[in-house]
Amino acid sequence: MNSIKSMSDKSDRKDDKKDDKKGGVSNVGAWAMNIISSVGIIMANKQVMSVGGYNYRFATTLTAFHFTVTAAVGYISSSLGYSVSKHLPFRDLFLFSLVSNTSIVSMNLSLMLNSVGFYQIAKLSMIPTVCILEWILHNKTYTREVKMSVFVVMIGVGVCTVTDVNVNFKGFTAAVVAVISTSLQQIYIGALQKKHNCGSFELLSKTAPIQAASLIVIGPFVDYILIGEVLLNYTYTAGAIFFILLSCTLAVFCNISQYLCIGRFSAVTFQVLGHMKTVCVLTLGWILFDSILTGKNLMGMFMAVVGMITYSWAVEHAKTQAAKSATIKVKEPLREDDVPLLRSDADLEYGKADKE
């Protein structure tokens, strides 16, 4: 019997290892999809929106196109049976879309009203903001190692991206709204998946149509306020349409991978490891667009990568320690010294019962 039990235990361990490997591959795939699609969409948008490209500077409207294509992909996938359509309360979907659209509009405002340096600082402040909001909303705490690695990532990315820093009241207000709303949006993605027990693509398929419809309505007006140009006056060329469609296609993968990564890990992990995109963009800018990489940039990129690696280790270490402490509490062994005490307690109880 013991030999059979030991054999079954070994087979269970092998199955667990196989599952872990499968999970590890899918996790790496999710991060790879997010980094590649995010870097790709930045490059495509640079061609679409830059003066040297097609000068399509309607950022909010372009985002509306992104969610329209994403919603269409979700509808087609559900219709063909490739994904499951799950009912979610409209109230939750509406609140999420409101927070998400606020994030998009305020981020564009922050970019317009602030210097590039202050805009980058605002983006970096999302990491501690997510940590604080997670602590307030979900009572989540972080180990000293995690906090230190987050600090190293922030310093590294700050060194390689922050240049001129000019602050004004309107820009500061837009940046504060952008940071809080974006942080809440990313926390909300994970919270909704857990609350309704739904997958990342299921949630995205439900939120994308609402965001697309609302942004198509308000997008042209927001863009007019931001850049002073009317969308209907833009002349679409074949090249502009191609790169807009390319941007929309990459946005589908970017949105899916964002929901996937946050659902599997956390908003903090998405923020920290997401800065790998910054490193990739700087490197590709140097390779493809002859951008200058200074020693300061290289030092900051190195610090950021070291911080990300340390963060990954710190998170896994915290999980291991938590699992060990939980196992010790659940499986507390019975010592031989406790047996006489248990017997004496039982005798006292019996004696007490006899007296009564």
Automatic annotation (TrEMBL):
Keywords carried by this UniProt record: Membrane, Transmembrane, Transmembrane helix
Domain of life the protein comes from: Eukaryota
Membrane topology field: Multi-pass membrane protein
GO terms, biological process: transmembrane transport
Keyword presence, Transmembrane helix: yes
Membrane-crossing segments per the record: 24-44, 64-84, 93-111, 117-137, 149-166, 234-256, 268-289, 295-314
Key word Transmembrane present: yes
Pfam families per record: TPT (PF03151)
Segments for region (Disordered): 1-23
Annotated GO CC locations: Golgi apparatus; membrane
Basic and acidic residues bias: start-end ranges: 7-23
Localisation: Membrane
Domain Sugar phosphate transporter: 38-312
GO molecular function terms listed in the Swiss-Prot or TrEMBL record: antiporter activity; nucleotide-sugar transmembrane transporter activity
Protein name listed in UniProt: Sugar phosphate transporter domain-containing protein
